[in-house]
Write a structure and sequence with these properties.
Structural class: alpha/beta
Strand content: 15-25%
Order of helices and strands: EEEHEHHEEHEEHHEHEH
Mean pLDDT: 92
Number of helices: 8
Shape: globular
Amino acid sequence: MASADTLIYSVANGVATLRLNRPMAHNAFDHAAAEALIDACRRAATDAAVRVVVLAADGPTFSAGGDFNWVLGWPKLPRGEVEAAALLLADLVQTICDLPKPTIARVQGSVAGGGVGVMLACDYAVAAEGTRIGLTSVRNGLLAGIAIPVLIQAVGTRRARQMLMHGGMYEAGEAAKIGLVDRVVPAASLDGEIAKL
């Protein structure tokens, strides 16, 4: 088992678990966290011992998306640095989408903004009852751009537009009905349901 400040990578019985480890920041992505997850995905993709990848998170939040402390500093950066940061987040979603092994998002607590994009980039999303999911960044005048392509694939163009404007949260059951998650189970059954998959 290898550990880093922002991500814990472990492999057991053919399953690589990539565990976001920024609970105090609601597992939001800053530059280091995005790079760590990209690196872990690439590592799992080439690891012959790995057949399936599970994306999980420590703490009460799966992911709040882009770290506002990082993203809100972008306007002060030179244009090239802003573009590089935005492309890094887009590369994060694309790297998960392109993984040549099945991916499962293990979702609990809440998922917001770009965290929705990361969740939807996985082949499956299994959520604990009580999980809340939404593209809330619009409330702060921001658009979770990295989520848009996978959101459209998951829920269709019209509903995606509505969700991007809505800014609210959806309970797990409703999220399953509209295609944001594939299964909703009691929190105590989350790992068992993922093991079945």
